[in-house]
């Protein structure tokens, strides 16, 4: 069964989509079969990967006869259709044969209320018993179709029922952050919300009506892989500027003093020896990197990761090209190190 990794933070603007795409590509470079899954109704990941410029272009995957997006994949459960859930026809990704996209849908948010009701009732109504396990079921059968090793879930910035379900039915989760006041505050709310989600999931796993459903609620215990801190400026091209370093220090302090103790109390941390095998401490970032600057726009334009852009795609020459390539190679090393840590943790867990 494929390993499911959720990228979650209810604070927006922390580069969840960018991280999902680039980390997925690097994992694929290392021989893993990866499916990146767009679970944000804004569909930024889908638009970026497929190069869509406006909403009309999404009709290609919304109106297709085949099941080519997440909403259509879940429709048999949420709309009580007389058919079982089938695998989604994923999109191939140019230049990366080991990675696929399971496209999102703007209408996924329409299922939020229904799923929330089902999860509040914890399966007590037979008509809703198939909903809590449906997302996991869809992902698993799609992963099996493509022989995927890893599923990366790009989640929306919310604390709604869909995110609750996605995180608590994952094997691991990563919390992307930006060095700012709002990410520091997000740690407090995550330390409050995640225990409630964990308690709900424990109860759901014990409910016979959910275990005997057509789409059983999975027995998962998501574990924390770490944070990814991004989007800060460098001082003299080497270290974060003083203002950004202050927020990075505050994030690490909050993770150490609030998030880690809560995760430990709720069984959401890996054993200490597993973290040690990667040279990683859970209170330290899995990856820490500066702002991509012009590389992000070029990455989106050419539908390529920021670390694999060609000289032609970099659209510069001379000294500017040299500096840009140096920056690009640094990002490649950071993503490579992060991917290696993830692969090692998965192998040792």
Description:
The protein has 349 residues and is of the alpha/beta class. It has one domain: Rossmann fold (3-Layer(aba) Sandwich). 48% of the residues lie in helices and 12% in strands. The chain is built from 14 helices and 10 strands. It has helices spanning 16-29, 44-50, 59-62, 70-78, 112-120, 134-146, 161-168, 181-206, 208-211, 242-265, 272-277, 294-302, 311-314, 318-348, and strands spanning 3-7, 34-39, 91-92, 99-102, 150-155, 172-177, 223-229, 234-235, 239-240, 287-288. The protein starts with a strand and ends with a helix.
What keyword list fits this structure?
349 residues; eight-stranded mixed sheet; two-stranded antiparallel ribbon
Beta percentage is: 5-15%
Q: Summarize the helix and strand pattern as letters.
A: EHEHHHEEHHEHEHHEEEHHEHHH
Strand segment tally: 10
Query: What is the overall number of helices?
Result: 14
The residue ranges in which pLDDT falls below 50 over 5 or more consecutive positions are none
Q: CATH homologous superfamily?
A: P-loop containing nucleotide triphosphate hydrolases
Shape type: globular
Calculate Rg over CA atoms.
20 Å
Instruction: Quickly give the CATH architecture.
Output: 3-Layer(aba) Sandwich
Nutshell version of this structure?
By secondary structure, the chain is α/β, with parallel strands linked by helices. Helices cover 48% and strands 12% of the residues. The chain has a single domain, classed as Rossmann fold (3-Layer(aba) Sandwich).
Layout of strands and helices, then pairs:
Blueprint: E1 3-7, H1 16-29, E2 34-39, H2 44-50, H3 59-62, H4 70-78, E3 91-92, E4 99-102, H5 112-120, H6 134-146, E5 150-155, H7 161-168, E6 172-177, H8 181-206, H9 208-211, E7 223-229, E8 234-235, E9 239-240, H10 242-265, H11 272-277, E10 287-288, H12 294-302, H13 311-314, H14 318-348
Parallel strand pairs: 1-5, 1-6, 2-4, 2-5, 6-7, 7-10
Antiparallel strand pairs: 3-4, 8-9
Helix pairs in contact: 1-14, 8-10
